[in-house]
Design goal:
Distance between the termini: 28 Å
Number of strands: 3
Low-confidence stretches: 1-83
Oligomer: single chain
Number of helices: 11
Helix content: 40-55%
Strand order of the largest sheet: 1-2-3
Largest sheet: 3 strands, antiparallel
Length: 279
């Protein structure tokens, strides 16, 4: 460690840091993916980016903020036992769905860049207090975890793709837009009939429909869109209300054939920064 500067973290120390952070949330797959990619041993320089950002992401994705700061409409949220922290991040829900996918569906997902989601493990309980603590250490302007005057670990959007295995294309998701009519068509194309545009009730049924090499391109495109909506809702950037989803990414779904051209890593990282300012 250098005095008055950023932490000089050896590969061994990186493994310890990341193992500690990830173990606290139980997200073993993110640790294993980071190890396999060589990321945890390829940044020996001071201030190098480190994958623990993904646990920060977990805190954000869980919408883990103190209950007294939650808006009134979130009063029906499930609270963790004995805690005033709420989570909507559900790796268990994602695992439950993707573990039933056929090889054909898995190949579709891998082909458009979301293959990392297929490796999410079955995790039923998250350490939300640890997630909030990590979020409290995130300096938004410097994009780093600050543990003291000379202790910093830099994090950035690339870490999301390295560990979670989602696309980091050239198009900013937030730069897209969708009209009410287009949103209705998109929802209809994946079988969502609820009149509430943020509701995704029934999407698991849509994902469970049979697909094979005889399926139409329309059916396959519908599956692609439904899958992205599902993982955004339950893992990557969940809404504070159960079975509801944000509307800020639907514009990127208008062309299912171009899903991998969008920077979903930046989108997810952006959703980390907002709650980090609240803790």
């Amino acid at each position: 460690m250098k005095d008055g500067g950023d932490m000089a973290i050896s590969p061994c120390h990186k493994k310890v840091f990341f193992s500690l952070f990830v173990a606290s949330a139980g997200v073993g797959v993110w640790w294993s993916r980071g190890m396999r990619s060589g990321f945890l041993s390829s940044h020996p320089t001071p201030g190098a980016s480190l994958v623990p950002h993904l646990l920060l992401q977990l805190g954000e994705l869980a919408v883990a903020v103190p209950s007294q700061r939650r808006p009134p409409y979130s009063s029906d949220d499930e609270a963790s036992s004995g805690s005033n922290i709420t989570s909507r991040c559900s790796p268990k829900s994602v695992f439950s769905v993707v573990s039933k996918f056929s090889k054909f569906k898995n190949q579709i997902i891998q082909d458009y860049g979301f293959g990392g989601i297929l490796e999410i493990p079955c995790i039923s309980k998250l350490n939300l207090k640890q997630s909030v603590w990590l979020l409290s250490k995130l300096d938004n302007e410097e994009s780093c975890l600050v543990f003291g005057p000379s202790r910093r670990i830099y994090v950035h959007e690339d870490d999301v793709g390295i560990v979670l295995g989602i696309p980091s294309g050239e198009i900013d998701v937030s730069s897209t837009s969708v009209t009410d009519e287009q949103l209705d068509l998109l929802r209809s194309s994946i079988g969502l009939a609820d009149s509430e545009p943020r509701s995704i009730k029934g999407i698991e049924y849509v994902l469970g429909k049979h697909l094979d090499d005889q399926s139409s391109s329309q059916e396959i495109d519908g599956f692609k869109v439904a899958f992205v909506v599902f993982v955004i809702c339950h893992l990557l950037a969940p809404c504070v209300k159960h079975d509801h989803v944000n509307l800020d990414f639907w514009g990127a779904l208008k062309n299912p054939g171009s899903l991998d051209r969008y920077n979903w890593c930046l989108y997810v990282y952006g959703h980390v920064l907002v709650p980090a300012q609240k803790v």
